[in-house]
Amino acid sequence: MEKPFRYEVTHTCAQSGARLGKLYTPHGVIETPIYMPVGTQAAVKAMTSRDMEDIGTQILLANTYHLHLRPGEALVKKAGGLHKFMCWNKPILTDSGGFQVFSLAKLRKIEEEGVRFQSHIDGSRLSLTPESVMQIEQDLGADIAMAFDVCSPYPCDYDTAKAAMERTHRWAERCKAAHTREDQALFGIVQGAFYKDLRRESAKALSDMDFIGYGIGGLSVGEPKEIMYEMLEEIEPIMPKEKPRYLMGVGTPDCLVEGVLRGVDMFDCVLATRVARNGTCFTRKGRLVVKNAKYAEDFSPLDDDCDCYCCRNFSRAYLRHLFKAGEITAGVLASIHNLRFLIKLMEDIRSAIAEDRFLDFRKAFYAEYDMSNNFGNGN
Amino acid sequence: MEKPFRYEVTHTCAQSGARLGKLYTPHGVIETPIYMPVGTQAAVKAMTSRDMEDIGTQILLANTYHLHLRPGEALVKKAGGLHKFMCWNKPILTDSGGFQVFSLAKLRKIEEEGVRFQSHIDGSRLSLTPESVMQIEQDLGADIAMAFDVCSPYPCDYDTAKAAMERTHRWAERCKAAHTREDQALFGIVQGAFYKDLRRESAKALSDMDFIGYGIGGLSVGEPKEIMYEMLEEIEPIMPKEKPRYLMGVGTPDCLVEGVLRGVDMFDCVLATRVARNGTCFTRKGRLVVKNAKYAEDFSPLDDDCDCYCCRNFSRAYLRHLFKAGEITAGVLASIHNLRFLIKLMEDIRSAIAEDRFLDFRKAFYAEYDMSNNFGNGN
To answer: What pTM value is reported for the model?
Structure first.
């Protein structure tokens, strides 16, 4: 019988070394490199499943931490799993909640057994362990589950970073031991903060554990982009060539281009939808804040090159009016645009790799893109 | 040359006397009786134009008062009119703002010349007259423009109601004199509060002015539904048979059924979308508050009979989760359902009229619909 999961590198760009791949899952094949929209609470904010299909989404994220708290994995399981619950028949990936509990700061305590924390919803005292997270993710039933890991802040002293990494490795072993669903792929997560030797050590240790794929965690937490890129370059030669690599929480247009150049296959980020609801839009030329007065009588689309429903039909002037008037539709349309922008960018990147011209593509990208009007790393 | 507007009664139900009709406009033919979704600020709240097409919308409303204040009719005109601005190529009707300025209560003063009021947005002092409203509506460029009228509250003493009605008639004449666009139909508005003789007098006076169609205004402002129905019965014999009749601001399921029985051809109401965003949904059995705990594990759709995108794909349990989690998508899905519910109800009503069985339909409607779990008139 064929394995439910398989990843193959289908082409390596002769010009850049960037790679094209296919990740086979029980809910379909994912063409990589790819940007994955985020539906934290089992819905991409302001979007419906058909909106997501319309923009060419191949896989959605959902979050274990949020869904455990509300509505609870028992309900999702009873509904027949996440795919049925949220009406999404393509692949789904669940983050493990490691980053979310880390973000709770003073509301959480990380120990060897797991993390004790207070719910951000009602303050109730809860805990997550590698074993309980595996149970939750298996109940949710996504195609890909992430291991439960320990993040480090930026900056972070060496000993703290090392301890977090080592615990992440022990937790990865525990996750592997606890994970039994064969129709769900478990991905390990590389940590090591901003120390090259730790990143190398983590990449090696995780590789030896032979996961189906690998997250690269703990980046885009406030460090300069150059440092993130250095970490990616450090681990690239160590990461197994035949496994997918997922750079977690990274999703600005330039970071996608740079990540792909450094061998990354998968990205996710809430930035696209978060800034969209505030009227900030991606364009080939950089950030566009559509609420600005200069767009009041601008009847052109957000981005001339974009093929999304919003750009095909609505003007900057109309969008600006909707935002000024507080209409929910404003956030809907801007979210459609921002998500489609990133998905289309990755489609264009895949074409460039297939045609061995990704360095040319990258050069053309920066010739248009105003880096002085850009986003942060955007976690 | 054929006139840009034409209304014909295509069938009268042998069982009930209710009528089917066709209203021809420059942007297409409207089959009546019809419920018209409301896009107050040039967008139906939480909806996109394609959502509206998908649910079978034949005509949209927009509001002169709101659009005058923001973004201003000059911008809409510059964009090429409301159809282009909001990307809606089917008919549009603009309300005149008469009801909106009336609703400003202490912030407005109604005089013979017009209404002076303070903007609900920034408190600036503005005025509207029959002539300025005609100019605004012509700049907006909807297919149907409503005359500027004077509403009365409920309850209202006879002399006040009479004075408001008489002023409405004088303003209707001024609107007619000021209105020149031949590709836009001007509808007069019948007033007269809750006095049968005034309603009859108003219906007669407006009929004599020979408008293309007629609004029935000042109802659903807090009075018992029976009183509203009495007013409709009173004016029905007086209203010209060959003109469309539009009961303004009325849109609960039972009121649609009762309005059609009393000769109404067009309805609008913001209730469907307003309550949807709060998780209150229309069903054949009455109101359903999907946030209620009893739906936590209910994997059935909002309404078994409904063919909308939401009911075809999502469960009450999922919708409840989205509402509890504060997801915008919750309001989007519930709005799709509530709007489609009313549009489908009117489609079913039209079929029943066509087949001379509208009284049977009405009986079956009430057999299912729990009137003790209903909405108010819902303006």
So the answer is: 0.98
